[in-house]
Q: What sequence folds into this?
């Protein structure tokens, strides 16, 4: 059947960003701009106790005195922080609702995303806490988790129900004044997830949160806090998609992980926010602060697959405070068209015999710029610290860039630090070899990219790995012509 | 099965093939010999559809179909196989995964479902035994860190898996020690049937002791200058190519 040119054009346009639709849900939005009143109003709106309001105000005070960082290898028009609305919640949200009461339009939207709550419920071993436009709408599997004493809820709920835990740990890993975006987030965070695993408990399922930005012109400021008590274990999945928008959307999240003595946290992210169109217009600005603190014998693994956002600024880090603690960072970052990513990690070795591993895979296509920025720091008392870093870049075409900025600061003579880096290009001869075996160019690229990323994909939980592979294919479609 | 008529091809505006005529019928084995730079590998690439080469004149037909507008992957689906002289590495992609993808893409093109996993495993087992391949080898990244011999054996393994109509083996003997050569040759002999054809591209007649050709062609300066039976290979071995060069210059 022959296509008309119009039809073809239309199909290509719709293919550009599969998830670029907009669900019309009545929502309540604050006027644009940020000042003390707005901070207080957010806190009040969420029914927070006074200590939380004060904590936010303190953060706001720091933020006012801070300046936006400029050291990253990204170029963009700075957001006008007074032109953003800092609160938006779907009107019909009610924490006491069951799934049956959930707004049918919301459910429809999850279906479009392929993550309908119904489906998720059936997925064994995955509990889902969905954050859409700032307020958690549905939480499942809560009961099963509660039997083990595991708390998995929205951060707003945790502030009310478990103030002692929140008060003790919020800001303990990422202080309010840590950086410009962390301060902003601390002042205005709308919602996010909270998770506590009691001593000696192994969380029986993967905990999963889907984030989604939906309201035009609202930045989203999530706050996530995961606390793994002594000798506990949890695997946490975070996945993101967002609808396309013309104006840039700001996203400044903070994620804090606390791994107490002997605890282990695996934190996996698939990030697929709107990257802007092929001319580089629109797209999400993603300025995230993610950090973990590892006490004695604790272990934290960050795994991320980043395919979205127009500008990414993200460095999931580990502070290896306790002796024998372990930090790992596995990352795949894909940039296409005009996307810019400056991402990496910080491994701070404080305790003795601490170990860290960094595997970073950057894939650049189109006119994009992809930077790895990493710091390995060994403090003077960290005897026997070890680090292994490997940074590989894969280039597609002649107009993109890959950059590596590894920083090493070793203040202890016994430290062993290894760094390996490679840069390669998908070769015409590789593509022809695949073609000759009956594999078309699109599929050949997917195969080569998956092979390149394999070490990291293998670290993801099964269901996530499949989704991540698909994302890699979608993001690079049409990038070699 | 394969009919090449007056084929001319350029690379970077330089003419490499200058009028090749060749007909290969089902069940036949043809050897193409010739000195370095005579155009042997170019011929192989052009048959496989490599777009770095521009066909300026003539035609290639496979089972009566003109291949002019047929992409390399479609040619593969129709049964053209090229065993590369220098197989490329694809890090992180195992031999098994690569073959699974290749077979299923080919099935998809024919409107078939993916091959069920158990059939795939059976096929792999069968073909790896044929070529005396250790199955651990199949989980390694494609050609990465393979020795010269392993690369060539892997090419023939892929040929066995894909069961092509026309297989072109480009310098498959180079880099093989005598044992590997024997294994590869016996694999090719077992795969040979009355329904398929093999084109051997080689410098030396060594390979032809193991895979006996029905016809031998000598390629020189982009043209087939002499054709004959298997005895022509022996003659070449004895006299070298110079006498032919002189003969054709006249």
A:
């Amino acid at each position: 059947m022959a296509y008309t040119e119009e039809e073809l054009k239309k199909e290509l346009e719709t293919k550009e960003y599969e998830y670029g639709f907009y669900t019309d849900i009545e929502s309540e939005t604050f006027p644009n701009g940020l000042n003390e009143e707005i901070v207080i109003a957010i806190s009040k709106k969420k029914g927070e106790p006074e200590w939380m309001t004060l904590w936010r105000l303190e953060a706001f005070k720091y933020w006012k005195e801070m300046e936006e960082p400029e050291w990253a290898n990204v170029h963009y028009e700075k957001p006008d922080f007074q032109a953003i609305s800092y609160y938006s919640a779907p009107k019909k949200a009610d924490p006491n609702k069951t799934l049956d009461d959930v707004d049918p339009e919301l459910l429809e939207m999850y279906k479009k995303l392929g993550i309908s709550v119904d489906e998720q419920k059936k997925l064994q071993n995955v509990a889902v806490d969905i954050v859409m436009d700032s307020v958690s709408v549905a939480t499942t599997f809560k009961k099963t988790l509660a039997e083990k004493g595991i708390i998995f809820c929205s951060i707003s709920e945790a502030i009310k129900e478990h103030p002692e835990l929140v008060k003790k740990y919020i800001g303990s890993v990422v202080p309010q004044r840590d950086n410009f975006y962390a301060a902003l987030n601390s002042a205005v965070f709308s919602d996010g997830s909270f998770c506590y695993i009691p001593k000696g408990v192994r969380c029986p399922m993967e905990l999963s949160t889907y984030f989604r930005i939906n309201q035009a012109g609202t930045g989203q400021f999530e706050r996530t806090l995961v606390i793994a008590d002594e000798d506990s274990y949890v695997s946490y999945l975070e996945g993101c998609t967002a609808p396309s928008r013309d104006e840039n959307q700001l996203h400044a999240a903070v994620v804090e992980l606390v791994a107490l003595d002997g605890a282990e946290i695996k934190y996996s992210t698939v990030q697929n926010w709107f990257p802007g169109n092929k001319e580089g217009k629109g797209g999400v600005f993603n300025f995230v602060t993610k950090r973990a603190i590892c006490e004695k014998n604790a272990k934290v693994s960050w795994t991320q697959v980043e395919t979205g956002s127009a500008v990414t600024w993200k460095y999931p880090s580990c502070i290896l405070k306790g002796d024998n603690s372990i930090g790992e960072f596995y990352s795949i970052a894909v940039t296409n068209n005009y996307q810019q990513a400056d991402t990496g990690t910080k491994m701070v070795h404080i305790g003795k015999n601490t170990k860290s591993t960094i595997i970073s895979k950057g894939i650049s296509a189109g006119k994009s710029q992809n930077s790895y920025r990493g710091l390995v720091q060994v403090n003077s008392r960290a005897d026997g610290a070890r680090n292994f870093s490997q940074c590989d870049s894969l280039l597609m075409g002649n107009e993109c860039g890959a950059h590596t900025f590894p920083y090493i600061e070793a203040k202890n003579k016994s430290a062993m630090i290894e760094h390996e880096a490679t840069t390669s290009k998908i070769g015409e001869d590789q593509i022809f070899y695949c073609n000759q075996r009956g594999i078309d160019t699109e599929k050949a690229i997917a195969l080569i990219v998956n092979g390149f990323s394999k070490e990291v994909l293998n670290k993801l939980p099964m269901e996530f790995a499949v989704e991540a592979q698909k994302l890699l294919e979608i993001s690079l479609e049409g990038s070699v012509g | 099965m394969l009919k090449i008529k007056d084929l001319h091809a350029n690379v970077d505006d330089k003419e490499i093939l200058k009028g090749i005529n060749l007909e290969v019928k089902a069940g036949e084995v043809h050897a193409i010999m010739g000195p370095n730079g005579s155009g042997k590998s170019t011929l192989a690439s052009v048959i496989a559809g490599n777009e770095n080469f521009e066909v300026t004149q003539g035609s290639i037909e496979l089972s009566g179909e003109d291949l002019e507008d047929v992409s390399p992957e479609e040619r593969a689906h129709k049964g053209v196989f090229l065993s590369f002289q220098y197989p490329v590495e694809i890090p992180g992609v195992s031999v098994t995964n690569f073959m699974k993808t290749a077979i299923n893409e080919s099935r998809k093109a024919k409107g078939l479902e993916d091959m069920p996993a158990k059939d795939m495993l059976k096929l792999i087992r069968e073909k790896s035994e044929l070529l005396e391949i250790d199955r651990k080898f199949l989980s390694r990244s494609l050609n990465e860190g393979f020795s010269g011999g392993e690369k060539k054996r892997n090419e023939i393994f892929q040929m066995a898996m894909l069961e092509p109509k026309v297989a072109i083996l480009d310098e498959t003997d180079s880099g093989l020690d005598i044992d590997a050569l024997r294994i590869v040759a016996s694999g090719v002999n077992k795969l040979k049937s009355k329904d398929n054809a093999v084109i051997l591209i080689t410098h030396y007649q060594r390979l032809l002791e193991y895979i006996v050709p029905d016809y031998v062609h000598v390629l020189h300066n982009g043209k087939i200058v002499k054709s004959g039976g298997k005895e022509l290979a022996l003659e070449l071995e004895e006299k070298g190519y110079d006498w032919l060069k002189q003969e054709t210059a006249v």
About this structure: Chain B has one domain: 2-87+148-249. The mean pLDDT of chain B is 91. The longest strand of chain B covers residues 14-24.
